[in-house]
């Protein structure tokens, strides 16, 4: 488990990084926290000819509040985000999901941007971004552009990033007024989810005004099911509504099976988790309303 | 015997060293001019090797040598040794150090590269061209025994390498007249030991001393030395095998031989440069031996009161592609099965079967978990069918304390009669029941049901064979510094021998535990022995340690008697000092006696026999000693996701006299963790082409501290009459009953659904599948609340 030979570059600025990406194209591979890339290198499953190490690019490590959004720099460690009071207060869904990303050691190295750019369909953060309808900011030789979550995740481990583009930051809409819950079933604590779901609801009294759900582990990208969200929208969150939601989710999604769980398992459990997540999110929203009164 | 230390929770002598990074593991061995090896392994489960072209690899700068089968000397072109024969093992096939004309499992070594770095060695592997002709693989046990199955070894004409039957009484007759006979099929799938440290070997040939030194992560350094001497044409004294600190053994690190164990020393000699090979995790999954895979067709016959009349099992044992370790695992499974119960008629037969998968050899438990799973599941089935409480059924069949020694009527893995030496099975069971709260369980269970929670309780009993022969030895020396050195014949892989052996010696010589330095696993320090396996180090080596320490004590008194002009009977040894009884002023320290015992002038008194305060002793038990235990647990199932939560876990265990309860508790807890892994997390998955799909820790799931619950451990102490310490083995106690226990707890939790667990390991996926199937058959118990307290 030693990597094949590669060249190593350690740029210190975004401009330098973009220039390197441009020069090496698909042969260059960005190294952020290394929690996915390094094992792939060691198993020789990835054999890039150039590793471009982002760890000396200091300007990508930040958490800022801007216009109702929280912008998290791509090189911000997951653990830093997890401990950020801004994330805890204004991004409850992200705060719920971050402790489920690997283990403490992994989050201490792993970055928010790396996790999003790697686009593992079983990872938590892409589902959070999808549920919140957030976006990413990317820089290429032609300049900076913003890509919405639904357009960013293209397929399994594939994003809208061009080979010479660098993900600069991830923007999560603040949602402290809403109820949020991220639930997942993983074989063990810290494993990739067999199925996971992020839920955000806006409640008016006992009525759900708006609900968003994004699933992980059940498709090539984070999965949204508008019909399922519609089931709860405008209704009281009763057992009957939740049961209908669960059935619809199970019926609608089309996951694939692997050695850890069959497609049937994922379908069934996605329905269960959707139900539980909406229930938990609605409960939290009600608690917030009570506290604000 | 004074027991200042024996039985105490003494902190481990080795921990300050290990915790501060002072350990020496194989990979810590660095030597000048060290070369690094890597192996090209078969990507096919079954293929003919048509051609191996190493030219490209040899041309890569930094590559020093590339070996294939034909490049090896004649002794290494033969199949590797067969150290554990058995009359029933008709086709005793072992692998070649490097594949000759055929590969028989994914991961089998084909070529061996030595280079100036491991990176270059791995680059070179990419440049070796092998022409394989793929053959149809034999992947499953059922497939292997079909008449038209492809043959793993063509010359055998069959994939069945051994068929072996043991009988007690007359099972057919007993079953014919029994009130009830229940039959069941049980399936246990593959797992791997996954030690924290993978295997590793460093070898150095010293042409001046004409000595080969090998650092090897083996559990059996002395047999490896003996075998290497023979294979490489050296004197046994010309080979020194050192098993340094080892990050867990668990069984598969004893194998005489793994290919790498001969290739690395051979290359070091041939190249006259030290060579290192460190197994990486991906290699370890395919190249270190596996275990667990068996399919049992079993039956139990009981009378109306639930008394066992007969038990029968016929099972298939997957040996993998070769069977170097013989029939140990299936024999242990067969002989562990009867457990603590009186079974007047017993029939067990197995077929050991070749498949195109990694070799199987003992892994912690070594067949015991299988036997216990089958027996306990049969007991649960009988209890359920007869409507007798499962614990009551067990009580009615337990061997009673006055019935020891109890002859089970079988031959054990050491070829000696299976005779339980001592124990108190009813007391062990009652203690566990009390700890888990069995008496109040019906109310407790009803309370959970009222909350729509699916919670079950399990209780499983087992008897563990341990402490078998042939022998182990120890040499104890008091040096002139007053420090005591003890060289033992066994290797150590984390069991705490540096402390438990020191406790035995410290008591004999009245010194502090810290002043006893134990040396393990170095054939240069002690040259006769077999190894650490079968929960035998404390029993067999520990007894030898005790005998040697007692001999040194006697020698100490003898020498001191001469010097103090007293009779040995009048001397007292206390706090490392010998004095004349009633005259404490007339005394010598142990250090002074050690100096006196090795005079520079004059003559050595004849009655001293030899110089120094030193003695070597061996202990050879007549047969194994048998600890026993009961585990109990309360487990909750989320019936919508198939996820488990263990709410309580208790162990009551009797391994005779306890040397160090802290070390013992650790052994048990670690074993339970591995048992839980084997019950719910760990499973090696092969696809239909024989590819191993689980070759990382992302896919092969070891339970972590987050998954393993608090484990309460209690001990009874029924001494063994078979050794001077009264001890029994404890290395496997934690793991053995876990699958049986989890199965029973799950049955209990899911009893409304009529689910009966007959396979291991499980997973949330599999549990939910069973729940789904059961619900399809029965009216759904969810979400409707259940009647309170109803079974």
Key features of this structure:
heterodimer, A: 293 residues, alpha+beta, Uridine Diphospho-n-acetylenolpyruvylglucosamine Reductase, domain 2, Uridine Diphospho-n-acetylenolpyruvylglucosamine Reductase, domain 3, Enolase-like, domain 1, 3 domains, five-stranded antiparallel beta sheet, 12 helices, 15 strands, globular, B: 791 residues, Aldehyde Oxidoreductase, domain 4, seven-stranded mixed beta sheet, six-stranded mixed beta sheet, 28% helix, disordered C terminus, Xanthine dehydrogenase family protein molybdopterin-binding subunit (chain B), iron ion binding (chain B), Ald_Oxase/xanthine_DH-like (chain B)
Task: Describe the structure concisely for a colleague.
Chain A is of the alpha+beta class and 293 residues long. Chain A has helices at residues 14-24, 37-42, 78-82, 85-90, 92-97, 104-109, 112-118, 124-132, 149-152, 226-232, 239-252, 263-292, and strands at residues 7-9, 28-31, 50-53, 63-66, 69-73, 135-140, 143-148, 153-155, 158-159, 166-173, 179-185, 195-204, 207-216, 223-224, 235-236. Chain A has three domains: 7-56, Uridine Diphospho-n-acetylenolpyruvylglucosamine Reductase, domain 2 (2-Layer Sandwich); 58-173, Uridine Diphospho-n-acetylenolpyruvylglucosamine Reductase, domain 3, CATH 3.30.465.10; 179-288, Enolase-like, domain 1 (2-Layer Sandwich), CATH 3.30.390.
Descriptive report:
Chain B: Keywords: Molybdenum, Oxidoreductase. The complex is a heterodimer of chains A (293) and B (791). Chain A has twelve helices and 15 strands. Chain A has helices spanning 14-24, 37-42, 78-82, 85-90, 92-97, 104-109, 112-118, 124-132, 149-152, 226-232, 239-252, 263-292, and strands spanning 7-9, 28-31, 50-53, 63-66, 69-73, 135-140, 143-148, 153-155, 158-159, 166-173, 179-185, 195-204, 207-216, 223-224, 235-236. A five-stranded antiparallel sheet of chain A has the order 4-5-10-6-7. In chain A, strands 11, 12, 13, 14 and 15 form a five-stranded antiparallel sheet that branches. A three-stranded parallel sheet of chain A has the order 1-3-2, covered by helices on one side. The longest helix of chain A is centred in the last third of the chain and has 30 residues, at 263-292. Chain A is globular. Chain B is of the alpha+beta class and 791 residues long. Among the domains of chain B are: 15-21 and 469-619, Aldehyde oxidase/xanthine dehydrogenase, molybdopterin binding domain (Aldehyde Oxidoreductase, domain 4), CATH 3.30.365; 404-466 and 623-784, Aldehyde oxidase/xanthine dehydrogenase, molybdopterin binding domain (Aldehyde Oxidoreductase, domain 4), CATH 3.30.365. In chain B, the strands form seven sheets. In chain B, strands 3-5-1-12-9-10-11 form a seven-stranded mixed sheet, sandwiched between helices. In chain B, strands 7-15-14-13-8-29 form a six-stranded mixed sheet, sandwiched between helices. In chain B, strands 18-26-27-28 form a four-stranded mixed sheet, sandwiched between helices. In chain B, strand 13 and strand 14 (308-320) form a beta hairpin. In chain B, helix 10 packs parallel to helix 11 (368-386), helix 11 (368-386) packs parallel to helix 19 (738-749) and helix 15 (497-509) runs parallel beside helix 16. The longest helix of chain B has 28 residues, at 537-564. Chain A binds chain B through residues 1-5, 39, 43-44, 185, 187-192, 194, 239, 259-262, 264-265, 268-269, 272-273, and chain B through 118-119, 122-123, 126, 280-282, 640-643, 681, 685, 693-694, 696, 698-699, 701, 703-704, 706-707, 763-765, 768-769, 772, 783.
């Amino acid at each position: 488990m030693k990597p094949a030979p590669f060249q190593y570059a350690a740029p210190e600025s975004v401009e330098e990084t973009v220039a390197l990406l441009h020069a090496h194209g698909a042969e260059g591979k960005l190294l952020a926290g290394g929690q996915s890339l390094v094992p792939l290198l060691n198993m020789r499953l990835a054999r890039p000819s150039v590793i471009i190490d982002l760890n000396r690019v200091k300007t990508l490590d930040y958490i800022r509040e801007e216009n109702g959004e929280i912008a998290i720099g791509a090189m911000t460690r997951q653990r830093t985000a997890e401990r950020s009071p801004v994330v805890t207060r204004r991004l409850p869904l992200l705060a719920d999901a971050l402790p489920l990303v690997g283990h403490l050691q992994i989050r201490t190295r792993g970055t928010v941007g790396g996790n999003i750019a790697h686009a593992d369909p079983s990872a938590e953060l892409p589902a959070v971004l999808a549920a919140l309808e957030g976006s990413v900011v990317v820089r290429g030789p032609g300049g900076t552009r913003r890509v919405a979550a639904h357009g960013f995740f293209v397929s399994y481990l594939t994003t809208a990033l061009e080979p010479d583009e660098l993900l600069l930051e991830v923007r999560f809409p603040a949602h402290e007024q809403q109820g949020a819950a991220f639930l997942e079933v993983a074989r063990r604590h810290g494993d990739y989810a067999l199925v996971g779901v992020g839920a955000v609801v806006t409640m008016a009294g006992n009525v759900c005004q708006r609900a968003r759900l994004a699933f992980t582990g059940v498709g090539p990208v984070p999965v949204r099911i508008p019909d399922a969200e519609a089931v709860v929208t405008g209704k009281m969150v009763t057992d009957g509504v939740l049961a209908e939601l669960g059935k619809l989710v199970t019926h609608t999604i089309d996951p694939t099976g692997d050695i850890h769980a069959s497609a049937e398992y994922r379908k069934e459990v996605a329905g269960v988790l959707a139900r539980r997540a909406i229930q938990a999110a609605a409960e939290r929203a009600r608690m917030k309303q009570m506290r604000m009164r | 015997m004074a027991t200042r230390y024996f039985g105490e929770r003494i902190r481990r002598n080795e921990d300050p060293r290990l915790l501060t990074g002072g350990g020496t593991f194989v990979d810590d061995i660095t030597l000048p001019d060290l070369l690094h090896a890597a192996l090209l392994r078969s990507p096919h489960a079954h293929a003919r090797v048509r051609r191996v072209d190493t030219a490209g690899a040899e041309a890569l700068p930094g590559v020093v040598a590339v070996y294939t089968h034909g490049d090896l000397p004649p002794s290494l072109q033969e199949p590797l040794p067969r150290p554990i024969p058995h009359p029933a093992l008709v086709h005793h096939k072992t692998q070649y150090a490097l594949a000759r004309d055929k590969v028989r499992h994914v991961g089998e070594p084909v070529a061996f590269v030595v280079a100036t770095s491991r990176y270059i060695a791995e680059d070179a592997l990419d440049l070796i061209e092998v022409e394989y002709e793929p053959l149809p693989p034999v992947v499953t046990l059922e497939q292997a025994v079909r008449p038209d199955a492809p043959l793993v070894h063509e010359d055998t004409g069959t994939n069945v390498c051994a068929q072996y039957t043991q009988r007690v009484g007359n099972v057919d007759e007993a079953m014919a007249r029994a009130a009830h006979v229940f039959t069941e099929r049980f399936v246990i799938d593959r797992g791997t030991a996954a030690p924290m440290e993978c295997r590793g070997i460093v070898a150095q040939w010293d042409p001046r001393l004409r000595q080969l030194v090998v650092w090897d992560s083996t559990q059996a350094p002395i047999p490896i030395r003996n075998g290497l001497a023979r294979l490489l044409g050296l004197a046994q004294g010309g080979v020194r095998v050192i098993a340094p600190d080892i990050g867990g053994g668990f069984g598969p690190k004893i194998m005489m031989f793994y290919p790498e164990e001969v290739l690395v020393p051979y290359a070091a000699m041939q190249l006259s440069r030290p060579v290192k090979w460190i197994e990486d995790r991906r290699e370890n999954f395919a190249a270190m031996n596996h275990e667990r895979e068996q399919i049992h067709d079993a039956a139990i016959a009981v009378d109306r009161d639930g008394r066992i009349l007969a038990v029968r099992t016929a099972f298939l044992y997957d040996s993998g592609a070769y069977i170097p370790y013989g029939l140990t695992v299936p024999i242990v499974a067969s002989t562990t099965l009867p457990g603590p119960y009186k079974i007047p008629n017993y029939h067990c037969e197995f077929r050991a079967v070749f498949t195109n998968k990694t070799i199987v050899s003992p892994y912690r438990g070594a067949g015991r978990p299988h036997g216990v799973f089958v027996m306990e599941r049969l007991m649960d089935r009988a209890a359920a069918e007869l409507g007798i409480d499962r614990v009551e059924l067990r009580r009615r069949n337990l061997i009673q304390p006055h019935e020891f020694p109890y002859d089970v009527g079988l031959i054990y893995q050491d070829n000696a009669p299976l005779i339980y030496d001592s124990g108190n099975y009813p007391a062990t069971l009652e203690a566990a029941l009390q700890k888990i709260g069995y008496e109040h369980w019906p109310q407790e269970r009803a309370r959970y049901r009222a909350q729509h929670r699916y919670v079950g309780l399990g209780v499983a009993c087992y008897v563990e064979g341990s402490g078998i022969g042939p022998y182990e030895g120890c040499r104890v020396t008091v040096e002139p510094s007053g420090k005591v050195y003890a060289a033992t014949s066994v290797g150590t892989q984390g069991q705490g021998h540096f402390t438990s052996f020191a406790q035995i010696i410290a008591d004999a010589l009245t010194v502090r535990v810290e002043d006893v330095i134990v040396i393990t696993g170095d054939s240069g320090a002690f040259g006769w022995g077999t190894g650490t396996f079968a929960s035998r180090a404390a029993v067999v080596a520990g007894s030898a340690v005790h005998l040697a320490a007692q001999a040194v004590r006697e020698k100490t008194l003898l020498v001191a008697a001469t010097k103090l002009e007293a009779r040995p009977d009048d001397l007292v040894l206390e706090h490392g000092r010998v004095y004349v009884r009633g005259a404490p002023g007339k005394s010598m320290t142990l250090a002074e006696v050690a100096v006196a015992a090795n005079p520079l002038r004059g003559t050595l008194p004849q009655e001293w026999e030899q110089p120094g305060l030193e003695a070597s002793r061996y202990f050879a038990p007549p047969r194994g000693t048998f600890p026993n235990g009961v585990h109990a647990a309360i487990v909750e199932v989320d019936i919508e996701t198939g996820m488990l939560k263990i709410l309580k876990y208790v162990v009551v265990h009797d391994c005779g006299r306890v040397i160090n309860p802290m070390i013992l508790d650790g052994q048990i807890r670690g074993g339970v963790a591995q048992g839980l892994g084997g019950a719910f997390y760990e499973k090696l998955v092969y696809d239909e082409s024989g590819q191993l799909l689980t070759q990382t820790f992302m896919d092969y799931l070891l339970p972590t501290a987050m998954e393993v619950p608090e484990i309460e451990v209690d001990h009874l102490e029924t001494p063994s009459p078979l050794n001077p310490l009264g001890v029994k083995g404890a290395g496997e106690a934690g793991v053995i009953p876990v699958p049986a226990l989890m199965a029973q707890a799950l049955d209990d939790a899911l009893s409304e659904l009529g689910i009966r667990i007959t396979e291991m390991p499980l997973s949330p996926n599999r549990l939910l599948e069973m729940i789904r199937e059961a619900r399809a058959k029965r009216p759904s118990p969810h979400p409707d609340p259940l009647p309170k307290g109803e079974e």
